[in-house]
Structure formats: C-alpha cells, structure tokens
Design a protein that fits this description.
Elements lengths: L5 E3 L2 E3 L6 E4 L6 E5 L6 H17 L3 H16 L2 H10 L4 H20 L10 E8 L7 E8 L4 E4 L7 H13 L3 E4 L5 H14 L7 E3 L16 E5 L2 H8 L2 H5 L4 E4 L5 E4 L8 H15 L11 E5 L3 H13 L19 H14 L4 E4 L21 E4 L8 H4 L6 E7 L2 H9 L4 E7 L3 H11 L3 E7 L18 E2 L10 E2 L2 H5 L2 E8 L1 H8 L9 E2 L16 E4 L3 E2 L2 H11 L24 H12 L8 E12 L8 E13 L10 E11 L5 E12 L6
Parallel strand pairs: 7-8, 7-10, 8-9, 10-11, 12-13, 12-17, 13-16, 15-16, 17-18, 22-23
Antiparallel strand pairs: 1-2, 3-4, 5-6, 6-21, 14-15, 19-20, 23-26, 24-26, 25-28, 26-27, 27-28
Helix pairs in contact: 2-4, 2-5, 3-4, 3-6, 4-5, 9-10, 13-14
The chain binds NADPH dihydro-nicotinamide-adenine-dinucleotide phosphate.
C-alpha cells in the first residue's frame, strides 16, 4: 500500500502504523494510506517560524510574486500526473480543471498582484495623515509580514485549489504554510506538494504537509500564526474554541456550511434568454463536482406562478447529465469523494424530506456509465420541492453536500430577500434578472447576508465566471453560517498575513522608513536635474525648486482657444457675480501644463523615456492673471519594471510629487505624476 508522505522540516516522512486507507471514489479500490502517528508537530511549527518565515520575509513582494509565477509554470508541466489522481477522487475532467488549473491560476493571479505592491519586504497602507498645524508631525500605516505560519485545514472537495488558493496569498505576504488537506483526498494534495518541493522554487520551510490527523499541532500555535479552516461547522467550532487559540488570540479564518441561493427575477419568463441562463446555471451548480462545492446552489427561489415551469425545465436539463466514470469522455458528473460522503448526503436528504418532496432523481438508484453504481460513490442529482419556505427551517439549514437543491416559491422581492437571509449567512448568491432595478433591490436588501452576489443576465452570461467560482481578486467567504471569514480578495487577502502598524513621526522620518516621500519632509537638493538621472541614480526625496512664471490673461485666452475649453470662468467678459470666482481664472490643466514646462528638463535627450500619466491631480486655489507660479518637484516613489520581452528597454516608473505654489507660497495645485525612466545601460 502506498503510504503517503508528510513533509516535515523539509523531509518526507511516513507516519507510524498502517494508517487510514483511502479509496478510489469510482471503483472502491484502495489508493493509499495516510498516517501522521509519531510526527513531531511542535517541531513543524518551530521550523516554520525559524526557517520558513525568515526565508520568505527577506524577499520583496516582487521576488515572492516571481516565485509564484515560476511555480505556476512548473506545475503546469505536471498536469497529467495530477489529473490521473484527480479522477480517482470522483472528479470529471471539468471538475479536475477547476481544482488543479484553478489552483494554479490562483498562483498566477497572486504573482501578478506583486505589481500592486512595492519592491520591498513591507508595504505602505493608504494615505499619510497630517496630525499637526505646522506639518512637522504625521501618521501613516505600514504592513509587515507576520512572523508566524499559516496553518490551512482544508476540505476534501478541492485537494489542490484548496491548498493553492490559500498558499498563494500567504506566500505573497511573506509567510510560510503548513497544509493539512482532508485525509480522504490527500493523495492528490501530496502529489502536488511533491512536485512543488521537487521544483526547488520555494525557499526551505515555505511549505510543510500533514496527510492525516493534526495531532497536537494546535497546542503550539502563537499570535503570529493564522489558522484557516474549510469544512463542517461542527469541526470549525470545535477547533475555534481550542484553548491555545483563545489564549494566544490566534486569528482563525473559518469557512463552513453555506446554504447558497439563486433567485429568478419576476421579470423573467420562459421565452427570455435569462430563463435558459437560470436553468443552465442551476444544473451546472448541482452537477459540477457532484455538488460538493462550498458555493453550490442549495436553495432556488422562484416566483410562485413559475414554479412548475421551472422544476419541469430543470428536471429535463438534469436528465441530460450523464453520470459515471470520469475517465469516460461522455460523463458529465462523477462520483462523490467516497462512500462516507455518499452516506452523509443521503442522511442529510432524509432530513430535508421531512419538509420537501423529490421532483427529480432518487436516493437509492442511479444510472451510471462505465462504472459500478454500488462500488463507486455515485448518487443521482436530487431536486427537491418545498411549498412553504417560511415555515420550514431545514431547507435553510441542512446542507446536503452533493448534487442536491431545493426549489421554493416567493411572491415578491421583499419575500425573496427575506428567504435568502434565512440561510443565516452564505458564501454567495445569484439573481437572474434583466432588470437592474430588481437587481439593485436584491443587492441592497440581501447584501448583508452574502459574501458575493452575482447578477446574471444575457448582458454578461457568456463571459460570466459563474455563481460557484470564487475568484482570486474577489473576496471569498461569507457572514454567519458561512463562517464569517474572508479569503483571497486580492490585496485584502494578503493583509490577513501582515500586521498593520500605525506609525507616527516627522514627515522626514516617515519618508525614510517607508521609502515613499511624504509631503513636508526635508527634500534632498541636488545640482543635477533629476531627469538627467537613470532609474538607479534617483533618490527618494530628491527635489528641485523651479523658476517662476507669470500667468497672463492672454495666456488663458490662448489656452482656451487651443484646448477649445471656453468654460465661462476662463473668459474675461463673464459677469462673475454669483460664481466661485472674482475674475477670469486660469484653467487647472493650463496650470498643470505650465508646471510641466517648469519642471521638465527640455531639449536634450535624457533617461526619461516618457510621461506615464498622472495618479492624482487637485486644483486647490484659483490662479488669476498676474499670479506668479513655481513648482516644488520631488521624487516620491520608485517602482522597478520587469522586462517582458528581451528587446524591452530596462526601466522603472518614477512617481513625482508636483506641488504648484503661487507668489505667496500657497499651494494652488498638487499632483503625483509618473515618468518611465531608463535603467543604466547594461542593467536590468
Ligand atoms: P470536516 O469538518 O470533517 O473536515 C474538514 C477538515 O477538518 C478536514 O481536513 C479534516 O481532516 C479536518 N478535521 C476534522 N476534525 C479535525 C480535528 N479534530 N482537528 C483538526 N482537524 C480536523 O468536514 P468534511 O471535509 O468531512 O466535510 C463535512 C461537511 O462540511 C460537508 O458535508 C459539508 O457540509 C461541509 N463542507 C463545507 C465546505 C465549505 O467550504 N463550506 C467544504 C467542504 C465541506 P480529516 O479529513 O483528516 O478528518
């Protein structure tokens, strides 16, 4: 028997004893055995703290991001191995694609997210905050990687995605992981971890793996660690109240049972495109992964006069789903992950049957292709009907983790919203409607109880990623029953693994610490114009004060003619009573253009390749004819750029603070502009 390896302190170790046997979900044959007996869990936590964490936190966001990308590319070369094992979990090719390539996709997405972070080991969060009248004292926020480890306790349904969607985030943040997949499908996770380690791309200690029980692991966690849990509410609660977790205030991110729903807007009739979209979405959600998805649609709310049409259309659609051996190309729905999962689904359906009736499918019979319905963990899709959703609690509380969903009527949108909330918090919900007024009412009414809401209609259906797909850049998680956690969500997710620290001090100190120039910090004067410098030579805080220029009425008239902007405030003959201005005022864009004329180093070729744009631009005081303006121009931030093509010029983006001042030294405008600057020849 293939005994699964546990990755402990960068060594593959098989636990003591025979372990738990894991079975092929389709044939019932044993695949592997898993045990963690004899493992030193404390040593795993210590190793993550003392080796994995320092190895990752010393890398910059950009280095970590490139590491994720390299890993994703590497894993893509081993897809055949992963797919072959995935079929044994009962997953079809399409299901496996979601798990395997969806997981790898997460690595790519978080790799790209590096560009939203500085090329530093830390990040600056939000804007600086002025805290004094004389501008000598200010506040800011910084994010530094936690010094702990992310412990991911995962569910059986996504052995690959479940690991990678979480690890991509903690690795980008600079924190290592200990992954504990659900034992029943852990042989697939083990294969992926073996490939990850063989790649040599991650630094030592960035990843450890437990295939089987977690032993006393949680007795050793600290406040610097983060635990994420995906699975049943009962296990989640048991773990969440672990003494050590409570005493050390260890963050515990929980994603548990969720009774997700879909609503058919009452504007939709069988003749509409949205009708077919609705039916198709439900069938997909019921049958993909044989309904073993935390986001699957469990409750279907339909206007009461359309109930019969909907369940008939759905039944017809479900009857076209070929169930059986995932290795057969015709099969669209595979098996559940194992016999115990099948028994569990049947028990849950029995509970639901006290208040529902089956309108499609059967509990004890299923027609399968190319497989034995008894040896494999097969079950038919089951569509249930409940006529009185306000007086039945089970339909909103019992999650049958398989291809099971209940259709229920509503009479108006208030009722649909109220019914959606009876799930007491879900991961996601969809509304199918072509009417955005209905959609808005639903989003504003039901938003409190859902982590994500999809508005589906023919305008987006073709490209929609679907009800059930959590996306790397969007928050995944939901309130209440869904656990109250949040995963992914782009930058939001990364912040879960970083400590946000408020810092206070002089603008100069904050500049020196953050490496981002803060307004009113001491500038660095330099005789050489900064546009004459290569990217590497630029210093944060490097500053020039430009010469001055008088703004005349003729200038303003000319700019109005050239730009075509003859807004009344820029015209001499306007009667200014009742306006914001006393007399003809210069265009803000004219002032900005004049500012550029003052700070740009003109005529000679220099390392500035191009003007990249403006991040922020504010006009803070009117400029009237006769005003003399000048600019304080300061290097604010440097962002290196990677070469995409070998022919690309090595370069970076420089951000500049442009403070435009008048003859009384008052600010009339402020901007952050960006230039693309070449690196020194021979550098990249
Ligand atoms: P469990 O809660 O039993 O298991 C989830 C994870 O927790 C597994 O890795 C499991 O490991 C681990 N675990 C169980 N007991 C402990 C413990 N005492 N200490 C540490 N870890 C523990 O959920 P299942 O995966 O069996 O799924 C059961 C139900 O959960 C489903 O039927 C469904 O209702 C719900 N579920 C919800 C999901 C969601 O995302 N919302 C996803 C999957 C399931 P091991 O496998 O070794 O027991």
């Amino acid at each position: 028997m293939n005994k699964l390896g546990n990755l402990v302190r960068n060594e593959w170790i098989t636990g003591d004893g025979d372990g738990q046997f894991l079975y092929n979900a389709v044939t019932g044959e044993p695949v592997a055995a898993a045990t963690t007996n004899g493992l030193d869990f404390k040593a795993m936590v210590d190793y993550a703290h003392s080796v994995g964490n320092p190895n990752l936190r010393r890398l910059t966001f950009h280095e970590r991001g490139r590491m994720l990308r390299a890993l994703a590319l590497y894993l893509r070369n081993h897809l055949d191995t992963f797919y072959a094992l995935s079929y044994k979990t009962g997953a079809t090719k399409a299901d496996s694609w979601i798990d395997i390539e969806g997981g790898i996709g997460n690595l790519f997405a978080y790799a790209s997210l590096r560009r939203k972070f500085p090329d530093e080991t830390f990040a600056v969060d939000g804007e600086g905050i002025s805290l004094s009248k004389q501008n000598t004292f200010m506040g800011h926020h910084m994010l530094v990687p936690k010094e702990g480890v992310a412990i991911h306790i995962n569910a059986f349904n996504f052995p690959v995605w479940g690991m990678l969607e979480k690890c991509a985030v903690n690795w980008l943040a600079g924190v290592p992981a200990i992954v504990k997949p659900a034992t029943v499908t852990s042989y697939l996770t083990e294969a992926v971890v073996k490939a990850i380690i063989a790649s040599g791309i991650l630094p030592k200690g960035a990843l450890q793996l437990i295939c089987g029980s977690v032993g006393d692991l949680l007795d050793h966690v600290t406040a610097q660690d983060v635990i994420t849990f995906t699975g049943s509410k009962s296990t989640a609660l048991q773990l969440k109240k672990h003494d050590r977790i409570l005493q050390e205030s260890v963050p515990f991110n929980m994603e548990a049972d969720s009774l997700n729903c879909i609503v058919l807007g009452d504007d939709v009739s069988p003749a509409d495109a949205e009708w077919d979209i609705f039916i198709k979405e439900i069938r997909k959600e019921m049958t993909v992964k044989a309904g073993q998805k935390c986001t699957a649609i469990r409750r279907i709310f339909v206007p009461e006069n359309k109930m019969e049409d909907v369940w008939k259309a759905l039944s017809k659609s479900l009857s076209q789903t070929v169930i059986g051996n995932p290795l057969n190309d015709k099969v669209r729905m595979g098996a559940l992950a194992g016999q115990s999962q099948r028994n569990e689904v049947k028990q849950q359906v029995q509970k639901l049957l006290a208040s529902t009736q089956i309108v499609y499918g059967a509990l004890d019979s299923v027609e399968v292709m190319d497989a034995d319905a008894n040896k494999g963990a097969f079950i038919s899709p089951i569509l249930l009907l409940n006529e009185k959703p306000f007086t039945s609690t089970a339909v909103h509380e019992v999650e049958a983790f398989g291809p099971v969903s209940t259709i229920m009527p509503y009479t108006n949108m208030e009722e649909a919203i109220a019914l959606s909330k009876l799930g007491k918090g879900s991961l996601c919900s969809s509304i199918v409607t072509a009417n955005d007024r209905i959609a808005k009412q639903y989003v504003l009414g039901a938003g409190t109880h859902h982590g994500r809401i999809l508005i589906l209609n023919k305008a987006c259906a073709k490209e929609s990623t679907g009800h059930g797909s959590p996306l790397p850049m969007l928050v995944h998680g939901g309130p209440g029953r869904a656990g109250g956690g949040e995963e992914m969500g782009g930058i939001r997710g990364v912040q879960h693994y970083m400590q946000r620290v408020a810092i206070q001090g002089s603008p100069t100190s904050i500049t020196n610490i953050t490496n981002v120039y803060q307004q009113y910090a001491k500038g660095i004067e330099n005789a050489i114009h900064p546009f004459k410098k290569y990217f590497e030579e630029l210093q944060i805080g490097e500053q020039i004060i430009t010469s001055k220029r008088i703004i005349t009425s003729e200038d303003i008239d000319k700019f109005a003619d050239i730009s075509g902007d003859h807004f009344y405030a820029h015209l001499t003959h306007t009667d200014f009573t009742g306006t914001m201005f006393e007399q003809q005022v210069a265009h803000g864009y004219f002032i900005m253009s004049i500012a550029a004329g003052l700070f740009v180093y003109s005529y000679e070729k220099n390392p500035v390749l191009l003007n990249y744009g403006i991040d922020e631009l504010r006009f803070t005081k009117p400029v009237y004819p006769g005003t003399e303006i000048y600019v304080r121009f300061t290097c604010k931030e440097k962002i290196p750029q990677e070469q995409r093509e070998p022919t690309d010029l090595p370069r970076g983006i420089a951000k500049w603070l442009v403070e435009i001042l008048d003859d009384s030294n008052e600010q009339v405008g402020i901007a952050t502009i960006l230039t693309m600057v070449a690196k020194k020849p021979g550098h990249n």
